[in-house]
Amino acid sequence: MASPTATGPRRAPESGIRRVRRQLPTSPWLFAAPGLLIAGAFILYPFVSTLVNSFTDRRTLVPGEFVGLANFRELLHDDMFWIGLRNSTLYVLGVVPALVLLPLLLALLVQKNIPGITFFRSAFYTPVVASIVVVGLIWVWMLDERGLVNSLLEAAGASPVGFLSDQWLILLSAMAVTVWKGLGYYMIIYLAALANVPRELHEAAAVDGAGAVRRFLTVTVPAVRSTMVLVAALSSVAAFKVFSEVYLMAGPSGGPAGEDTTLVMLVQRTGTGLTGRVGYASAISVVVFAVTVALMLLVLRADRKEES
């Protein structure tokens, strides 16, 4: 019987751990590469490009030259910029408290397991998945001078209300749309937080004689306080960057004499078109970014201060 031909010493098979160790330096980057490429192309590059353009006088069809802080100095003397900053700030002050409190109350209502509650949960969440354009057009139709709401007011003997013609009513109407559309989204976040609140705490408070309001303030609110901070941060950033709701309610001009223009609307109006001032619009965008970061830091600092 012939013996097998010797081909030299055989290497012992590598263990699985050693093979994994040899692959570690490059394998994670290969898995992360698609996400990093997408983030770089659609987030990092536009951010850096906007930051660079804010220091130039670039236009849509003209590369532009470096002008330093000229765009930011111009902002200080631009009346429309201050109008946009005022409206965006008022939007945050009007929308954020409602989106912090109302979804929590709504989550408490739909948390109960009673017959038919699934229908109400779905109904409250439906505006979230609806297109903002469709939602805005529906509200415009309802609040128009000859819309549903004014028709009901006239039928009741009242005078029609200029929801879409008065400066402040336009802003309030847009806020109502934002709150109505965001209720279901933040309700889901609160439902997840309420599911982790021990029932024993409510039972103990009830035994001590605490009513529903007392239990809400002493048990529910402290238990979901971190979630309330999260909702406040998310809703404040979204409210300061509002565009679609006000654009649909006030039109491209931003309401009467442009008095309902927000900062993001000003960016769109200034930086688009064949003669758009891309550099100036980029400077406004940088201001919007800085304010949104400041809002988030302010909310987090208030939360830490309360904890301490």
Ranges where pLDDT stays below 50 over 5 or more residues in a row are none
Query: What's the mean pLDDT score?
Result: 88
Helicity range of the residues?
A: over 70%
Structural class of the helix and strand makeup?
A: mainly alpha
Q: How would you sum up the global shape?
A: globular
What is the H/E string?
Answer: HHHHHHHHHHHHHH
Proportion of β residues?
under 5%
Total helix count? 14
Protein traits:
mainly alpha; 308 residues; 14 helices
Structure description:
The chain is mainly α and 308 residues long. The chain is 70% helix and 0% strand. The longest helix is centred in the N-terminal third of the chain and has 32 residues. The protein is globular and about 70 Å long. The chain starts with 15 loop residues before the first helix and ends with a helix. The mean pLDDT is 88.
Task: Set out the fold topology.
Blueprint: H1 16-23, H2 27-53, H3 70-75, H4 79-110, H5 117-129, H6 132-143, H7 148-155, H8 167-194, H9 199-207, H10 212-223, H11 225-240, H12 244-250, H13 263-271, H14 278-307
Quick recap of the structure?
With 308 residues, the chain is mainly α.
